[in-house]
Amino acid sequence: MTVSITPCSKNNPERGRPGLLGRVLAWLALGLALLCALGPALAAEPEIRYAELVSNDEQYVINADVDFELGQRLEDVLEHGIPLHFVAECIITKGRWYWWDEKIVERRLPFRVTYHALTRQYRLSVGSIAQSFDSITGALAAIKRIRNWGVVDADRLKGGESYNVSLRVRLDKSQLPKPFQVTALGSREWDLETPWLSWTMLAGAAR
């Protein structure tokens, strides 16, 4: 006679429960879903990767590399005919032990980016100079790569003395139409601004 023995469920507490591998796969799937959902929030923050203040004999100039992403909302606004204004800001001060630091100079470099639907081109204006580009990437490249921006005459800084330099680049939301300024309040999609990058330089020498 053949006897068949089948374990009873009450004697096998693991029966009907997911195994270790199943639980691990479930957690991995959940983690992946959370990363996908948080993708926009985890995007790299705007920052200045490199900056220097150097002399070209007549004046001191800023060279800087800036990293930022425009974001889908700002691209949509631009392509619907709303110009975007950016500004680079530089402040140079000199420390004083007896009082607040002396502000030597404060400079702003404005950028204006527009999109022309008829020509499907982007136009970047820096002061009185303007240039057209076939893509938004090309237009933003000039903002991300600042070169030879004169900020102070060479004779304003005394050779051999130390000065503090601060630099940032941001979207100038005050230049947006009023309805968009209201929309931009408290919204991270519109909050495109690098932290201040500060360093000390010795006049007459590179940083």
Report on this model:
This protein has 207 residues and is of the alpha+beta class. The chain contains 4 helices and 9 strands, in the order H-E-E-H-E-E-E-E-H-E-E-H-E. The protein has helices spanning 20-37, 72-79, 136-144, 178-184, and strands spanning 47-55, 59-67, 84-94, 102-116, 121-126, 129-133, 145-153, 162-171, 197-202. The strands form 2 sheets. Strands 6-5-4-3-8-9 form a 6-stranded antiparallel sheet. The longest helix has 18 residues, at 20-37. Mean pLDDT is 81; it is low at 1-17 and 28-42.
Features of the shown structure:
alpha+beta; 207 residues; 4 helices; three-stranded antiparallel β-sheet; disordered N terminus; 20% helix; six-stranded antiparallel β-sheet
